């Protein structure tokens, strides 16, 4: 595997069902990435190490997913100059509204690009990461254009019958 340029981090194994969609999207675009469980609360030292070494290890973008009291994206952003995209994972108790508000309400000066709750957010975080990387990678820009063209071509003109 080539040197990872995107770091996907998540607060728990339970976040992987959501964050796997970010990983699959990066893989489809042939973007090398790494996936790590890094909890702001349960493994704070791991978070500090990840964030403070991310840039010199060659990462260009971080995608951070967390649920509930979702401090992971913001704390990571506070310790790295890399762009950080936050994915609010859908929580059981509050359906991810807690995650969304925890991630989106950053104080001015420490940005986290916050995506939608759940699967759509994970996919779009990967696509945003791809768009950032494509600014300096013409081959990736072509693959991203092709990905979008395929998506457009896959939309039917008319709805089909819903299977019972
Ligand atoms: C957060 O707490 C994680 O990001 C996860 O979404 C949530 C629940 O974690 P588990 O109790 O399932 O490990 O830190």
Please explain how this structure is put together.
With about 160 residues, this protein is α/β, with parallel strands linked by helices. It has helices spanning about 15-30, 45-55, 70-75, 95-105, 120-135, 140-155, and strands spanning about 5-10, 35, 60-65, 85-90, 115. It has a five-stranded parallel β-sheet with strand order 2-1-3-4-5, with helices on both faces. Strand 3 (about 60-65), helix 3 (about 70-75) and strand 4 (about 85-90) form a beta-alpha-beta unit. The radius of gyration is 16 Å and the shape is globular. The mean pLDDT is about 95. Bound molecules: 5-O-phosphono-beta-D-ribofuranose (RP5).
Bound chemical compounds: 5-O-phosphono-beta-D-ribofuranose
Largest sheet descriptor: 5 strands, parallel
- Envelope shape: globular
Distance between the termini: 42 Å
- Return Rg in Å: 16 Å
Count of runs of 4 or more consecutive helical residues: 6
What is the percent of helical residues? 40-55%
Order of helices and strands: EHEHEHEHEHH
Mean pLDDT: 97
Quantity of strands, as a count: 5
Strand ordering within the main sheet:
2-1-3-4-5
Strand content: 15-25%
Structural class: alpha/beta
Q: Flag low-confidence runs.
A: none
Can you describe this structure in just a few lines?
This protein is an alpha/beta fold and 164 residues long. The protein has helices spanning 16-28, 44-53, 72-77, 97-104, 119-134, 138-153; strands spanning 6-10, 33-37, 61-67, 84-89, 113-114.
